[in-house]
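>> Question from a student workshop board

For tomorrow's exercise we were told to take the sequence and the ligand below, predict the bound structure, and bring the output to class. My setup keeps failing. Could a helper post the expected result so I can at least see what it should look like? The ligand is adenosine monophosphate.
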Amino acid sequence: MEVIHPSVKRAMLEAQSDPDRYWASQAEKLPWFRKWDNVFNWTPPTFRWFEGGRTNLSYNAVDHHVTHGRAGHAALIGLNEWGERRTYTYAQLQDEVKQVARGLRGIGVRRGDRVAIYMPTMPEAIIAMLACTRIGAIHIVIFAGFGGSALAERIRLAGAKVLLAADRTQRKGKTVWLMPIVEKALEQAQVERVVVLRRGEGQPDLVPGRDIDWPDFIAAGQGQSDAYEEMESNEPAYILATSGTTASPKLAVHVHGGYAVGIHSAARVVFGLSPDDVWWSTSDIGWVVGHSYIVYAPLLVGATTIAYEGAIDYPSPSSFYRIIEREKVSGIFTAPTAVRMLMAHGTAAAAGVDFTALERVFSAGEVLNPPAWEWMQKDLFQDRIPVIDHWWQTETGGPVMANAWGLGLSAIKPGAAGIPIPGCFAEVRTAEGEPVAPGEKGILILTRPFPSLTPTIWQDPERYAREYWQRIPGTYFTGDAVHVDEDGYIWFSGRADEIIKIAGHRIGTIEVETAFLRHPAVAEAGVTGRPDELRGEVASAFIVLRQGHQPSEELKKELLRTVREELGAVVVVGEINFVHSLPKTRSGKIMRRVFKAVILKKDPGDISTIEDEGSVEDARDAWREIQAQIGD
Ligand code: AMP
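>> Workshop helper replied:
Here is what the output should look like for this input. Compare the format with yours to find the bug.
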C-alpha cells in the first residue's frame, strides 16, 4: 500500500533535492522590508538563514494584515475558565501592541534588551510579547506554573532588564497568587523594574521604586515612539528556557527571519492553516507551542487564534467542547495529556455538541498513545476528522515530523510521530553515529538545519555545539530514542538522556534532584521518570538523608513542598523512596537506569541508555541493593 500520497512525495522530493530553493520559496510567502542576500550559510555548529534580509516578526504578525485589508478581522480571542471573553481585531491588536511598545520604551527598554514575562495565557501577555518583538527587545516568557527558583534562574540567565508579571491566575477555580513567587525570585535575581498587572480584588502592594502598575506603565509611554524596528533576519526575537541534562536550563534562541519562515511554512503545510481558521492551541504561552502556535504562526497566517487561561475541563468536563462549538473552532492543537484527560471524562461530556466547524486536531509533546488516539479519532469524532500526531522540540521552533499533512486518515499510523516534513531531514543512528536498519532502535538526529531550528543557546555557544552538534558529529542530536519503519515513519521509544516529560513538559531530572537538595535534611537525591496514565510521566525520587534525619511521612510532605516552591506545580513528584545510598558508577556518576529498572520492575540490562553509567553487572548489584532497601 502506498501510505504517502504521490503529490506529497513529489513536494518532499523537490524539497529534498534543493532545500535552499524550497525554503526561499517559503520565505517569499512572508513580507520583507529588504530581501535576503543569501538563503543559507552553514558555518558549523551554527548557521544563518536569509542573511541580509530585514524583517520584523511582530510587524509580519500584526501590522501587515492591518495594511492589507484585514484590519477588521478577528486576530485574538482571549478566554478563560471563569468565562471572560475578549476579542481583538488585527487593528485593535495593533493599537494595543503599539501602546505597550511605547510603555516599554518609556521604562527604558531598547532593542536587544531582554524582557521577562511571567504571566498566564492572557491577551496582555500576548500583546507584551508582540510589543517586545516590535521594538527588537527579546522576550523570555516563563511559564506561570514555575516556582521562585526556576523563575529566578531564567531571569538571571537571560539577563532580563525588566519583568512583566500578572499578580494572579486561576486554575480549576482556585486563585494562584504569582507575586509571592516573584518576590522569592527577586531575592535571587535582579531586574530594574517590575511591571505588575493587577487583576481585581485583593490587589498586592507594589514595592516603591521597583514596581510599576500596568496603567502607569502605559502612561509612561506617552510621547514615546511606537515604530517597529527593522531587524536583520538572524537577530534574536525571543529566548525560551528548556530543560537539559544538567541542573541549568538551556535558553533556546529563536530569530526574527528564519523562525518566522519555518513556523509559517509548517502552519500551512502541516496544519493547513488559512486566514479563515479559528485556531485553538490549548498549550500555554510559557511553552514553545504557545509561542509558535498560539501567538506567532496563526497571526502570521492572518487567522483567528484563541488564547485560553485555565483548565480546559473547568468548570465542567464539557467546557472544552462548548468552546469549540461556540467559537466555531476549525483547528485544534493539543497534547496527549489533555487527550487522556478528556478520555477519562468520556464521550458523554461531548454529547449534543455541534462539531461541524472542526476540521482537524493535532497533538504533540509526547506520544499520542494509540488507545488515546483511537478514543478521540473514533469514539469522539467518529472518524469524521483526522487526529494527527506530530513531533518537535523547543529548539526546533515548529514541527519536524508529522503524521499526515492534509492526507486524510489512511496515512495516519497511530503511535508514530510521522515522516519528516519537506525541508527537514531526519535519520536514525547508533550512539556512535552508525546508520541503523529500519526497525532497529537508535537515536533520532537531524542532518541539516532548517529555518526555525535554534541557531545557538543564549550566551553559551559552546554548550550548543557540545550538546547538539558534537555528540554525533555534524548532526543535530535530538536526545530521542526511536526507530524508523519501512515507510519512513518514526516511532518514538523514549528519551535517551535524563529528561522526563510530565504532562508533556520537559523536565531535567537533575533540576529536580537539585530542588530536593535545597532541603536541609537531604544529602543526596536521584530522580527518574515513572510512567503515569494521565501525565505520561511523573518524577520518582530516591533520597538519602543527612545524619540525624529520619524518614517520615511528615518529611515526605516537606520535601514535596520544597520541590514545589523551587520549581512550581509543573513538577509532579509521584513518589519518594528513602534509601541509604545511591547507585553510582566507579567514577561517581549516579546510575539512573537502576532507578528506572526498580520502578519498571525490569533488569537494568534491559534499560537502554546512552549515558556512560558503568557496567551492567555493577548496575545489577546496585539494583539488588536498592530493591532490598525499598522492598517491593
Ligand atoms: P519540548 O522541547 O518540551 O517540546 O520537548 C521535546 C521532546 O518532547 C522531544 O524531544 C520528544 O522527546 C518529545 N516529543 C515531542 N513531540 C512528540 C511526539 N509527537 N511523539 C513523541 N515524543 C514527542
